Amino acid sequence: MTLNIAKGSTSHSAYNLRSTYAETVERHVLAVIVDNEPGVLARVIGLFSSRGYNIESLTVAETDHKGHTSRITIVTSGTPQILDQIEAQLGRIVAVHEVHDLTAEGPAVERELALLKVAGTGEHRVEALRLADIFRAKVMDSTLESFIFEITGSPEKVDAFADLMRPLGLTEMVRTGVAALSRGTRTAV
């Protein structure tokens, strides 16, 4: 802590105390291995909503049919203290087997799938196709008035493609949310 004394002031007031550091909000990707049973996802989401934590992205699917477990991938943001609290509280849920903070554990590969509907004619159509080629987006459907593009990549890549498609007639978009795995031999299972 530093003492902030107003110019010309001779008193030291507690009201002048100011923190010298600001806790930064960080984005983290969590992999949560849970029992594949009814209500588990609701309990995990309930933990976030009851404490006012935000979920930026959420994906869930069964990953071990024999073991009846699913993997929930959650993208959230918070201060380091909040992120530690989230991880600890998730670990207290009975149906949760493991919680891994992929961001804190080291490099990870993140991918997202998105479908984008772009309506347009003439030069807008030509430009949309040119940009799709640059971004390696696939044309999944085409009519005389619209395209549906599929794009896979990092969330930043999907955002950039969507931003470029907006002025060309982006009318609708759906995203899967982030799927992520740790690089190397580390596993979350």
Automatic annotation (TrEMBL):
Catalytic activity: 2 pyruvate + H(+) = (2S)-2-acetolactate + CO2
Keyword Amino-acid biosynthesis part of the UniProt annotation: yes
One GO term of the biological process aspect: L-valine biosynthetic process
Cellular component aspect of the GO annotation: cytosol
Superkingdom of source: Bacteria
Family matches, as Pfam families: ACT_AHAS_ss, ALS_ss_C
Molecular function via GO: acetolactate synthase activity; acetolactate synthase regulator activity
EC number(s) recorded for this UniProt protein: 2.2.1.6
UniProt keyword terms in alphabetical order: Amino-acid biosynthesis, Branched-chain amino acid biosynthesis, Transferase
KW Disulfide bond (keyword) present: no
Signal peptide: none
Domain ACT, residue spans: 29-104
Pathway of action: Amino-acid biosynthesis; L-isoleucine biosynthesis; L-isoleucine from 2-oxobutanoate: step 1/4; Amino-acid biosynthesis; L-valine biosynthesis; L-valine from pyruvate: step 1/4
PANTHER family: ACETOLACTATE SYNTHASE SMALL SUBUNIT, ACETOLACTATE SYNTHASE SMALL SUBUNIT 1, CHLOROPLASTIC
Subunit structure: Dimer of large and small chains.
The family this protein is said to belong to: Belongs to the acetolactate synthase small subunit family.
Role of this protein: Catalyzes the conversion of 2 pyruvate molecules into acetolactate in the first common step of the biosynthetic pathway of the branched-amino acids such as leucine, isoleucine, and valine.
Protein name: Acetolactate synthase small subunit
Organism lineage string: Bacteria, Pseudomonadati, Pseudomonadota, Alphaproteobacteria, Rhodobacterales
